[in-house]
Structures are given as structure tokens and as C-alpha cells.
């Protein structure tokens, strides 16, 4: 399976991504872009119409994990070890949110990822994230982990 399909299948296998409408916009070598459409069900404050931070967190975590799956040296599965998200501003009500993540380094067991989330104004990030993810490699048949 090519790296693009691995990251797409990773996103498709997560039930809450389907529930939130998170979808793959683009994939590249070790990088993924995901989209989260604006949905009033995801609004955290009805007075402002701003999407809840939890939905942005899910988007960024998923984009980062998908970027690991798109890295040529990260064969197998992945899971979040640590993810720090710095929220820079509220997303603009009515606009979709995009997250771009890049897996910039992979060791035997850990992958390192950077991600940015933004709405239609790409020059002003909604959030920035840095994270580490496990690299769970498949064991050869007949061996134990």
C-alpha cells in the first residue's frame, strides 16, 4: 500500500473523524492536510459561533497521526504519546478549519510531528502543535514483541 493510501485509511478508520466530517484534503511524503467543515453541532459558544477547541484538537491529533502514517520510515501503526497544542486565536465562524501536519523525524519507536491549523486566513494560524507518536512496527510471524 502506498503512503497516501495508508494515511487515508488511517483517517477513514477513526469513527469520530467520520462523525465530525474530518476528511483528507491532500497527502504527500510525510505530510497530510485534513479539513474540518464548519458545522453548528461543533460550536462551543453559541453566542459567537466559534468551533469548540476540542474539535480542533481532534483535527490536529488526527492530522499528526496521519502524517506519521505517510512517512516512509514509519511502517506499522501509530498512537499519540504527547501532543502540545497552542491556540493562537478563535477560528472564524462559518469557515472550515484546515490542519497541515508534517512528520519531520522518525526513530525506531518514536515519530516527531509539527502541525498548523487555520481557517481561510492561512497567514494567521488558529493553532500550532508539536507532538510525539509511537511507531508500532509489525512483528515477523512467530516472534513476540
Topology pattern, helix = H, strand = E: HHEEEEHEEEE
Range of helix content: 10-25%
Number of helices: 3
Distance between the termini: 23 Å
The residue-averaged pLDDT reads 92
Strand order within the widest beta sheet: 1-2-6-7-8-5
What's the total count of β strands? 8
Which oligomeric state applies?
single chain
Residue windows where pLDDT falls under 50 for at least 5 positions: none
Q: Looking at the structure, what is the overall shape?
A: elongated
Strand content: 35-45%
Secondary-structure-derived class: alpha+beta
Rg, rounded, reads 16 Å
Task: Write a compact overview of the structure shown.
The protein is α+β, with helices and mostly antiparallel strands.
How are the SSEs ordered, and which strands pair?
Blueprint: H1 3-12, H2 15-20, E1 23-28, E2 31-36, E3 43-45, E4 50-51, H3 53-69, E5 77-87, E6 97-106, E7 110-118, E8 127-136
Helix pairs in contact: 1-3
Annotation keywords:
single chain; 145 residues; alpha+beta; 39% strand
Characterization of the model:
With 145 residues, the chain is of the alpha+beta class. Helix content is 23%, strand content 39%. The longest helix is centred in the middle third of the chain and has 17 residues, at 53-69. The protein is elongated and about 50 Å long. 36% of the residues are buried.
Amino acid at each position: 500500500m502506498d503512503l497516501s493510501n495508508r494515511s487515508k485509511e488511517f483517517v477513514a478508520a477513526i469513527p469520530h473523524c467520520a462523525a465530525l466530517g474530518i476528511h483528507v484534503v491532500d497527502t504527500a511524503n510525510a505530510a497530510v492536510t485534513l479539513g474540518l467543515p464548519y458545522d453548528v453541532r461543533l460550536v462551543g459558544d453559541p453566542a459567537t459561533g466559534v468551533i469548540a477547541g476540542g474539535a480542533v484538537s481532534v483535527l490536529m491529533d488526527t492530522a499528526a497521526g496521519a502524517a506519521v502514517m505517510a512517512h516512509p520510515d514509519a511502517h506499522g501503526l501509530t498512537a499519540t504519546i504527547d501532543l502540545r497544542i497552542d491556540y493562537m486565536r478563535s477560528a472564524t465562524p462559518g469557515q472550515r478549519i484546515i490542519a497541515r501536519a508534517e512528520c519531520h523525524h522518525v526513530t525506531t519507536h518514536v515519530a516527531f510531528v509539527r502541525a498548523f491549523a487555520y481557517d481561510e486566513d492561512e497567514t494567521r494560524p488558529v493553532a500550532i502543535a508539536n507532538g510525539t507518536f509511537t511507531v508500532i512496527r509489525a512483528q515477523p510471524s512467530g516472534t513476540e514483541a
